[in-house]
Write the structure tokens for this entry.
Amino acid sequence: MQKRILGQNLSVSAIGYGAMGLSHAYGTAVEKNEAIKIIRTAFEQGYTLFDTAALYVGQYADGATAINEALVGEAIKPFRDQIVLATKGGAEFHDSKLVIDGSPEGLRKSVENSLRQLDVETIDLYYQHMPDPNVAPEVVADLMGQLIKEGKIKHWGISNASVDYIERADDVTKVTAVQDRFSMLARRKSERLFPILKKRQIGFVAYSPLASGFLTNQDRSKIDQHNKLDFRGNMHQFTEVGTDEAQAISSLVTQLADEKQASPAQISLAWVLKQQPWIVPIPGTSKEKRLIENADAVNIQLSDDEIKQMNRLLDKVNYDQFD
């Protein structure tokens, strides 16, 4: 697969693999051996960026706890030194409530826990999962600099952060990547970050680049609105109103897919890749066919005119709902 550079020197596959859905947020966790097989197949297909987080904990069909970091750590053992392992910390669920702890003590504990769960000696790219309003970015960045010197992490990044937060953190310890939601249905929030990311040579990792599967053109009626383990039931695009609002985009994606003998997912990923040369999308899937399909998106060519046509249509979307 083609490569892209995050930050100044972190080389990764142009499309990464987001492991979240194997254990968390999309219903019951994928059976462990099957999930490991999917991750290893991703490596065989050329994926070299694998993304997880301490927050990604779910439930297997038998009721056992599914810990995404532990799963990813076991799966990548045969090729650990050939990939970039990314995880996120500083946020966990306690008694079903989200607890954010960006204090140096909390983040250091989070890093140590992730090293143990992943069963690795160092983490290639470690993100603060989300800013803590009670802790200044300079404090977080200083700790990350210490962790880099100690060899516990190699690069650091920030997820779900503002321009001001990124700038202040980057002034203390160089930020390699910023991660946020970005797709044709979620543009505006992340696009506001792009000028400063370009200026400071910070890469951008796009999660949910397929709008949580909406842009794959799969049967959306399969979403169980009452399944508390599947967070898509709360997403605007999976409501009747949201589906109607995004219909024009879905139709254009399907049209371009037919013209280029591609899938809607490949068109959607190709659009993301076209936006900036330092953007790396991390779609997730539990299907081997989709895994291969997503990897092939790097070969889909969208012309400048096609991008303009798509963007004109996208400009009409009410992003306040989808972001």
